[in-house]
Amino acid sequence: MVNIASLREYLDTQLPAALDMLRQMVGINSYTANRDGVNRVARLTAESFAPLGFSAEFVPCTNPAWGDHLVLTRRGSSSKSIALISHLDTVFPPEEEVRNNFHWQPEGNRIFGPGTHDIKGGSVMMWLLLSALRTHAPKVFEAVSWKLIWNSSEECFSPDFGDVCLRHFDRGTLAALVFEAEGRVGNQRMMVVARKGRGTWRVTVSGRGSHAGGKHAHGVNAIVQLGQTVQRVAALTDYSRSLTVNVATISGGTVLNRVPHEAMAEGEFRTFTPEVCAQAKAGLLAMAGRGEVCSPADGLACEVKVEILTESRPWPRNPATDGLYMLWKQAGDDLNLPVNCEERGGLSDGNLIWDAVPTLDGLGPWGDNDHCSERSPDGSKLPEFVEVTTFVPKAMLNTAAILKLYESSEGRER
Ligand SMILES: [Zn+2]
Q: Is residue 272 classed as helix, strand or coil in its secondary structure?
């Protein structure tokens, strides 16, 4: 166990450098589609971690429109390895940042700006805790092989980042720690121990177009059919099983004097377990086939087509993650920082890796309003921000917990 007072004092002295690193990262637009910007953040990140002894590898994304993933490695003297995971991209196009005057903006204890919270604040948290380990637990810092892996396109469900992680994890990696933001309930810091999986779907209805005045009965109205089908899609939602099915967009028809021959809706579904995911998918696909809306003239019915567009698997609650969570909780007890856990609806890179390596998420600082760039004069809309005073306590918690993780692995080897 490190000396808590001296660790806090050290982190306090490092915070200005960390915030300056964050300012530089936030100053570079890294919207997923801004390939150059993402690559610039990757280079800046590699330069920032180089003084800690990390060497950089830039791994091209299989989607050539997006920037490179970044892998930083520091070889340790033992066989123990720990992976830290973050991402380079944000959801804000450069034009939107300009339009909403959304940039690095400290205000009291908050710093507003694109990516301050999701997730550049988390990347800086990695630097803080590694710096703390180097000075306060140099034996552990030197013994561990550190793998720091940044996704270039997390916000767009990167096609290959899971593979990049699996290729770069060392054998017997003790943990993959994901630096998405922590949750807060009262004074409790919430670690993320599970995340929902997500599927996206499209329903397309084909009917038969006809003249709405002269041949209305000949028409087979695709919109009327879709209206009925989406009711049934929405009804698949089952909160008791944490299954949500969202009907998100709808379109159809062309001009007002025509019975519409086509209509389409799209949406997504989310849940925590593979079983419920599979049931939701089956429920959606079962809606395909002949519809009930048909032509009064000759009985021709609508045809309903259902497609599953994408599937991101869930990260269910599991013993390996719970084992890590207990270390963070114990470290919180030692530091007098209450720690709890939550199962979150949004995806992260944790969904891609949890069954390969014990995974824990939510190691970042606290902030709010992720993915929002707007500010209204009455303050009812505020953009993304990170809270400055959450960096040091969270860095202490992460540092102390990683030391526990290292110690517990020593125990296993003896
Ligand atoms: Zn994120």
A: coil
CA of 120 to the centre of ligand 1 (A): 9
Distance CA 174, CA 176 (A): 7
Sign of CA dihedral 268, 269, 272, 278: negative
Q: How far is the CA of 371 from the centre of ligand 1 (A)?
A: 9
Kindly report the three-state secondary structure assignment for every residue of 178-243: ECCCCEEECCEEEEEEEECEEEEEEEEEECECEECCCCHHHCECHHHHHHHHHHHHHCCCEHHHCE
What is the H or E stretch that residue 95 is in?
A: helix 94-99
Question: If you search the block for the tokens 């102390």, which residue do you land on?
Answer: 400
Q: Is the preceding peptide bond at 119 cis, omega within 30 degrees of 0?
A: yes
Q: Give the DSSP letter of residue 356.
A: T
CA of residue 191 to ligand 1 center, whole Å: 15
Which two structure tokens, joined as six digits, stand for 187? 């004074």
Distance CA 95, CA 76 (A): 43
**pLDDT digit string, tens, across residues 201-260:** 999 999 999 999 999 999 999 999 999 999 999 999 999 999 999 999 999 999 999 999
Distance 151 CA to ligand 1 centre (A): 10
309 vs 268: CA distance, rounded Å: 9
The secondary element (H helix, E strand) that includes residue 403 is: helix 391-413
Nearest CA to 220 among 287, 292, 288, 289? 292
State in Å: Cα 291 to ligand 1 middle: 41
The helix/strand count (H/E) of the chain reads as: 11, 20
Dihedral sign (CA 390, 190, 269, 260): negative
Distance (angstroms) between ligand 1 centre and the Cα of 324 equals 21
Please give the structure tokens belonging to residue 335. 């530091």
* Dihedral of alpha carbons 147, 152, 154, 155, sign: positive
pLDDT (tens digit per residue) in 91-120? 999 999 999 999 999 999 999 999 999 999
pTM of the model: 0.90
Helix, strand, coil percent values for the chain (each to nearest 5): 40, 30, 35
Under a CB-based contact definition with an 8 Å cutoff, are residues 398 and 125 in contact? yes
